[in-house]
Amino acid sequence: MVENDNLSTKERILHTAVALFAEKGFTETTIRELAAAVGMNAASIYYHFPSKSSILDSILEDYVNNIANTFQQDRFDKLKGNITAEGILSCLELVFPADKAAYYLNVLRVMLQEQYRNAQVRKILTDYIILGGEQVIKKMIRQLIDNHVLAENTDADFWVKAHSSFVYTFSCRMALGIGDQSSAYTGMDLTELLGFMYDLLLKTCKVDAGSATQSEY
Predict the structure, then answer these.
(1) 150 by DSSP, 3-state: which?
(2) Are 10 and 48 spatial neighbours (Cβ–Cβ below 8 Å)?
(3) Where are the alpha helices (DSSP H) in the chain?
(4) Residues contacting residue 217 through CB under 8 Å, at least 6 positions apart
(5) Is 206 strand, coil or helix?
(6) pLDDT score recorded for residue 217
(7) Fewest beta carbons within 10 Å, which of 132, 153, 156, 165?
(8) pLDDT tens readout for residues 158-180
(9) At what angle do helices 9-24 and 101-114 cross, to 10 degrees?
């Protein structure tokens, strides 16, 4: 059961459901198990949600409204004065809100587990997480090129594909429960891996520091 006096009954149901779905799987979790974990009976669950699918729908809607849509906001001013790998990661806002990090990480795990049997989940992953994220990364790289931070011949498509590959592969590993269980991943979380990638981008593609236009950004 989720212990948080600040959550409404409906929110407690959703938070508990996310934890159970991430641990056992959406299909494998029953309403009776969810009710027991929340501390109520099944009828009370159905009072708030007509079906288990409607619970998942609410979870996905919340994710899109509060996390995925941040990709649509203009974050690039944050790079001014901090054109580093850390600055790029901050611009992309790849970290979940601190007070909901565990919750949203579990939502992502649920989506990765359900993507092959739920068309709605596949669409959210495709439109918001993968394609939406790629559009932001490409826009960021293009802006750095236009402001003469990165060389004109920087291959934005390559770096976009590299970023997506890191995110998707790492996320799938976490969804499968294998996490860092290989020498290639030991001690590295996703932010650290992407940090290395963007550090490499700047080291290989950044315009010479003496460029007169460097100070514009």
Answers:
(1) strand
(2) yes
(3) 9-24, 31-38, 42-48, 52-66, 85-92, 101-114, 119-124, 131-146, 156-176, 190-205
(4) 79, 80, 83, 144, 147, 148, 149
(5) strand
(6) 46
(7) 153
(8) 999 998 888 888 777 776 777 76
(9) 50
What is this structure's pTM? 0.69
Indicate the DSSP class of residue 184.
T
Token output for 174: 């976490």
Count of residues making up the chain: 217
Q: How far is CA 5 from CA 8, 12, 73, 126, 197, in A?
A: 8, 9, 32, 35, 41
Please, how many CA atoms are within 13 Å of residue 163, restricted to the half-sphere of its CB?
27
Half-sphere exposure of 136 (CA within 13 A, CB side): 24
What percentage of the chain reaches a pLDDT higher than 70? 82
Residue 206, exposed/middle/buried by CB under 10 A (0-12, 13-18, 19+)? middle
